[in-house]
Structure formats: structure tokens, C-alpha cells
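Q: What structure does this chain adopt?
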Amino acid sequence: MGLFSKKDKELESVINQIRVDLSNNYKDNAVENIKKFEKLLEEKESSGKLKDAGSYHDLLNEFKDDVKNFKRTY
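A:
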């Protein structure tokens, strides 16, 4: 996102939660919140409420890569 682009508060909230989940090793929560982020991103794009979604898609792909190799330990 550019220097003056407006961030979507709802998406940013989910992003922050995913980062907390990943940093605390809450794998299941991170996976669920990534799904929530992806669905919300698609909804906002299809409704035209989001102008520049490219950086959000990049971030979504990064999160998916982070959890790709998660394995349950219980």
C-alpha cells in the first residue's frame, strides 16, 4: 500500500489477530483467521469497497505460506 492509501480497519483487525496467533504459536487459530481474512477480502473486493487489494493478497499469500507446514502436535 502506498504512503497515503487508506487501510481497511476490519481487514487490519483480522491481520493483527493472525500476527498475534502466529507469534504465540496458536496454529489452529491462525488457520481459522486466515480463512476469515480471505473470505472478508473477497467480499470487500466483490462489493467494490476495496480499491487496492494487491497488498492484501500478497499478505494473504505470506500467511498461507507460514501455516502451510503446520502439523498438529497433539
